[in-house]
Specification:
By secondary structure, this protein is mainly α. Helix 5 links the parallel strand 1 and strand 2.
């Protein structure tokens, strides 16, 4: 929320730092790239609009997607960082129980950005899952 209220490289760096366990991934280049995207024309308005949708009684219910998770009938891969501070691991277990054909892969020593922080293992797990569950006509 700090970045949304006061966009700066420092507040963005603090936010990105909560997304990963391995702080070496929070490079000046990453901060610059994300800062450029986050401050591009319209980006701040979009971020505020998305954030406000969680607080607006007219739209708050729209974001409660977990209520519909039990209706998913396709094989589903859930990937989670064990040290995720955005969506703690308990959320993975709730999803695993709700989605009938779900399987879960937990990445150790990993935060919210598993696809970045554990990129090689994430790719291996995802490709193997997709190869096993190709849609058949």
């Amino acid at each position: 929320m700090d970045f949304g209220a006061h966009p700066s490289r420092e507040s963005l760096r603090a936010f990105i730092s909560t997304m990963v366990v391995n702080q070496a991934l929070v490079t000046d280049e990453l901060v610059e790239e994300r800062f450029a995207d986050a401050t591009a024309p319209g980006a701040q308005d979009a971020m505020r609009s998305m954030g406000m949708s969680f607080w607006d009684p007219e739209t708050a219910e729209d974001g409660m997607l977990w209520r519909e998770a039990h209706r998913l009938r396709k094989h589903t891969l859930l990937t989670w960082g064990r040290e995720d501070r955005v969506n703690p691991l308990d959320g993975a277990f709730a999803a695993l129980k709700l989605i009938p054909k779900a399987q879960l892969h937990v990445f150790p020593n990993c935060g919210h950005w598993a696809q970045i922080e554990a990129a090689d293992e994430f790719r291996e797990v995802t490709v193997a899952f997709l190869n096993r569950h190709k849609e058949r006509s």
